[in-house]
């Protein structure tokens, strides 16, 4: 993780839909930004602040309206710039006990940068659908 080597989007709001390599029972999501010490300006106001995570059925029906399928909110979180640059947030997938192939990350605000917001790394945690039966009862 190097300053400036990030996914940057204009303004303080943005979203991305991540296609996973398999159907996954989601458990958590990790976000990473650079630390204040690594920042050339000594600030990290471009870090995301308020974040929502959704699962989506995008692409599963294959039809023209595939991108209009309903999304389900799995959590709303605040990335705290005073904590570790890598932060993991537990998702509430038990409300929807099925595997998904798409995750939508919605950044609602950042820590004050009016021009852009940066995300350095996103990790999605969970169990692949085909592994669930063999690992049932284990975490």
UniProtKB/TrEMBL annotation:
Organism of provenance: Nesospiza acunhae
A matching Pfam family: Sad1_UNC
InterPro entries from the UniProt entry: Galactose-bd-like_sf, SUN1-5, SUN_dom
MF term (GO), any: protein-membrane adaptor activity
Gene: Spag4
Matching PROSITE patterns: SUN (PS51469)
Localization per Swiss-Prot or TrEMBL: Nucleus inner membrane
Superkingdom of origin: Eukaryota
Single GO cellular component term: nuclear inner membrane
UniProt keywords, alphabetically: Membrane, Transmembrane, Transmembrane helix
Lineage: Eukaryota, Metazoa, Chordata, Craniata, Vertebrata
Protein name per Swiss-Prot or TrEMBL: SPAG4 protein
PANTHER family found in the cross-reference section: SAD1/UNC-84-LIKE PROTEIN-RELATED, SUN DOMAIN-CONTAINING PROTEIN 3
Ranges where the SUN domain occurs: 1-129
């Amino acid at each position: 993780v190097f300053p400036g080597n990030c996914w940057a989007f204009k303004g303080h709001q943005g979203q991305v839909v991540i296609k996973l390599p398999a159907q996954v029972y989601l458990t958590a999501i990790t976000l990473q930004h650079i630390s204040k010490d690594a920042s050339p300006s000594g600030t990290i106001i471009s870090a995301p602040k308020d974040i929502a995570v959704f699962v989506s059925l995008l692409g599963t029906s294959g039809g023209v309206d595939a991108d209009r399928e309903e999304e389900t909110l799995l959590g709303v979180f605040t990335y705290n710039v005073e904590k570790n640059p890598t932060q993991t947030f537990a998702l509430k997938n038990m409300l929807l006990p099925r595997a998904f192939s798409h995750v939508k990350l919605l950044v609602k605000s950042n820590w004050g940068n009016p021009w852009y917001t940066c995300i350095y790394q996103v990790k999605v945690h969970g169990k692949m659908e085909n592994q669930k039966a063999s690992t049932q009862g284990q975490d």
